[in-house]
Design brief:
single chain, 314 residues, alpha/beta, 6-stranded parallel β-sheet, 6-stranded antiparallel β-sheet, 12 strands
Length: 314
């Protein structure tokens, strides 16, 4: 069955209840998250139940810290596509507001998980927290499950030689450090920014390198600079390119955004959704003394990006 997105925990239909679910803030859906979801899939198979994933929108951090710097690793649409490819049946995107924020851990377990969703099994990482003040932990979840009719599976952290466990914070730090390759190791795929292509000054086209400009919105801000990229078009085509992620200090500072030069491509994609993977960091953003120097460097960047990308996809 295709993935169904469920945006509440109240008044659910019978086809939206009784799932075995993975529970957590799955921003990034990194390899640690994937391990939790894989364990939930085993429980769903054993229970002959649908496989669900439970998360929140907005992210609790955004609710409690509305002025926090942008930090997201994925949009909900990106999450849904990855979960669908993983065989998830139900994606519960619970509305995180004052009602849930004020629930104790026990109230959340009883009202939302047991009564509202009728879960069969809850699978979570060993560092999961829930309830007001993040008072609930895996031991509490097991107690509430035993008392209210659902099983609980706790999954040990997954990490590697560099990290004791994988976390969304480590991905953000890798991106801030200009290490998209390390972020990809933790994610299990390249980090990608998705957004609608905006019409702008079209200065790049006049200079010989037309760019598709995408706002960063609430995505974490990777290190400003130039990246080798792969972009997924709305029709499914994948196009290599080179992108500047930054503020354009040479031609007039703007709000940080992603400007992608799609190689060997000349089509109107304004208003379309573009998803761009940051494959490799090439250099920091810099201010040039002249437009001519900028153009020369951009062409050098493009040549380097082509050498990295074309063998990969050719």
């Amino acid at each position: 069955m295709a993935l169904r997105i469920v945006r509440d925990w109240k008044r659910l239909g019978p086809e939206e209840r009784g799932a075995s679910v993975a529970f957590g803030n799955f921003d990034g859906l990194h390899r640690g998250h994937q391990r939790v979801i894989a364990a939930a899939a085993l429980a769903a198979r054993d229970d002959e139940a649908p496989l669900g994933v439970v998360s929140f929108d907005p992210h609790p951090r955004r609710f409690h810290q509305p002025d926090a710097e942008p930090f997201h690793l994925m949009s909900l649409d990106q999450q849904a596509r990855v979960l669908d490819a993983m065989g998830v049946d139900l994606f519960y995107v619970l509305p995180y507001g004052a009602e849930i924020a004020e629930m104790s851990d026990e109230t959340f377990a009883v009202r939302v998980l047991a009564e509202g969703m009728g879960v069969r099994n809850v699978t979570a990482g060993s560092d999961v927290t829930f309830g007001k003040g993040r008072s609930g932990d895996p031991a509490a979840l097991k107690r509430y499950g035993a008392a209210h009719g659902f099983d609980v599976t706790v999954v040990k952290e997954l990490g590697d030689a560099e990290l004791g466990k994988f976390s969304s914070s480590d991905i953000r730090q890798a991106l801030v450090d200009g290490r998209p390759d390390r972020a990809a190791e933790i994610l299990g795929r390249p980090f990608a920014i998705e957004g609608v292509v905006q019409r702008d000054r079209q200065l790049g086209r006049k200079l010989g390198f037309p760019t598709a400009n995408v706002p960063l919105d609430d995505y974490v801000r990777p290190r400003l600079g130039v990246y080798a990229t792969r972009s997924l078009l709305a029709d499914g085509r994948i196009v290599p390119g080179v992108a500047n992620l930054g503020k354009n200090p040479t031609t007039g500072e703007v709000e940080a955004r992603l400007e992608v030069w799609l190689f060997d491509f000349d089509e109107d994609i304004y208003g379309q959704t573009l998803e761009t993977e940051l494959v490799a960091f090439l250099r920091p953003e810099e201010k040039f003394d002249s437009i001519e120097a900028l153009v020369q460097q951009v062409n050098s960047d493009a040549a380097k990006a082509r050498s990295l990308l074309i063998p990969e996809i050719g």
